[in-house]
Amino acid sequence: MRKGAESPTTDYATLSRRTFGSTSYQVTPVCVGCAPLGDLPEAFAYGVSEDQALATLRAAFGGAINFLDTAAIYGFGESERRIGKVLAELGGLPEGFVVATKADRDPDSNDFSGDQFKRSVEGSLERLGLDHLHYVYIHDPEHTTFEQIMKPSGPHEVLQDLREQGVIGGIGISGGPIDMLIRYVETGLFSAVETHNRYTLINRSAEPLLDVCVRLGVAVKNAAPYGSGILAKGPDSYARYAYHDAPPSIVDRTRRLAAICEEFNVPLIAAALQFSLRDPRVATTVVGMTRPERVQQTTELATMALPDGLWTALDAVGHDSEDPEANRFK
Ligand SMILES: NC(=O)c1ccc[n+]([C@@H]2O[C@H](COP(=O)([O-])OP(=O)(O)OC[C@H]3O[C@@H](n4cnc5c(N)ncnc54)[C@H](OP(=O)(O)O)[C@@H]3O)[C@@H](O)[C@H]2O)c1
Predict the structure, then answer these.
(1) What rounded mean pLDDT belongs to the chain?
(2) Ligand 1 neighbourhood includes 75 CB (under 6 angstroms)
(3) How large is the angle between the packed helices 268-277 and 293-303, nearest 10 degrees?
């Protein structure tokens, strides 16, 4: 008999809404990630047509998840443009839906000035067809310095002004290196943080950030629970982690995780999603998807009851604590 077949089960995750950080927004513990909907073949190794993206977005706006995550830079505006098209069809944002985007550098010149961030937010409002953005994150500040982001009239101050004017609801910080995110969070000026590919079944290098956020009351968005795909599609179908070919150590670890899931008769993807959902330090988990059926699948995976013994068995495989992109920004 497979393990867990007769063990007590716990329904860790439901899609009931919770307050997001210090805001009054009520969001589901799962958020639709719209990076691949911007058509990013260099990151995902496959493209996404406009028709497929629009169909996915229509399903997302009609499903149980009420939170959506995008960025100005995804597909150089294409992700936001596609979201805006569907919102126009719907006559605006469905009641209760929360949209977060990210303000970006100029992709050509790497301009991280305050003026560029103002232009970025204006572009997002136009492409999305909205006059208010619930949340705006400063995106990928690893490509500049802390001083540049925080200086007078710099990106953070520009977003603060826009918040005071009521154009945006909250300010977050999102990016890769964990020490860098902790430094921003510890300023006390960001009510939310978005980390990616660093708190998964494979890699837990974001642990210190999660602890700091609990201490400071900062809402954590844990993005890429599938490590950009390997934990969703399996090491034989899609051996990529964090937008690059996965090294043998990650492929091997994923195979061992998959074997344990099989013993417990649990899909690897469900374990990968609920690993994040069950952690009380995580406010919401951001899942990338490019097919309409993913919305319902994700809802089912999030609410599937998993056997208690699974987590101890998966923990025994061990995990990486090194930054998965450590060698990329040197
Ligand atoms: N710096 C940042 O702030 C930052 C960085 C990274 C990510 N993010 C955000 O986090 C989101 C999530 O990250 P991600 O998209 O990179 O990676 P991810 O969520 O770990 O994985 C996305 C992959 O999982 C697949 N998938 C999802 N549901 C599936 C299902 N039910 N069955 C089979 N495959 C499934 C998708 O395939 P299909 O395409 O076939 O649906 C896609 O290939 C992004 O979209 C973005 O919004 C933010």
Answers:
(1) 94
(2) no
(3) 70
